[in-house]
Amino acid sequence: MTHPDPLDSYAFKLTDHRRDLLKSVVDNRIRHFTLVLEDLKDPHNISAVIRTSEVFGFQDVHVISEVNPYRVGRSVLKGSYKWLDIYSYSKRARCLQGLKEKGYQIAVASTAPTSRPLYEIDFSKPTAFYLGSEVMGNHPDTLAAADIRFRIPQYGLTESMNVSVCAGVLVANLDRWLRDQGREKFRLPDAERNALLADFYERSAIGIDRNSPIHFID
Fold this sequence. Notes:
Shape: globular
Strand content: 15-25%
Order of helices and strands: HHEHEHEHEEEHEHHE
Structural class: alpha/beta
Largest sheet: 8 strands, parallel
Number of domains: 1
Strand order of the largest sheet: 5-7-4-6-1-2-3-8
Number of helices: 8
């Protein structure tokens, strides 16, 4: 018995232009870098980081909600979450364990003078960049488990940037590195790309009710 190709299931509901657009987007998706939001409190900040990740083609965003619940502002998201995989964790240890099992080095944003400047990180390694809560920063357990503590160089008197602005600066720098190296070298493997394209076809054709981009992990 032959099974229908998942790419064919919803393709007929989309125009040629829409299919070509979705394929182009998927071809530029990466998982080499990912952002982790640790107990952010402001829905605006969470939404802004998710939207920035989507715009720059970072497919996965990890949200830790051990203290502050996962909340977003739909007006800020502008539908961007539909085209990502968002992993929401109730326990920070589960997020850290999963990322390390996937081979990510853990880089935690820090304002400490001893932190390594962003440009000194070895970006050739898959890296998960942790951004801490607006008031408390990253949890001590996260800092203890970090492979790298990094800072974005600053030259003013203000102690730190808004977390969503920090994410924007970070992602723009990572995008520049990807382009310099050749972004095509970091594209998803064929099987992952086809599976993601099938998800995009379905979400574009009938919405996200049966294929949610948000994955809740205990």
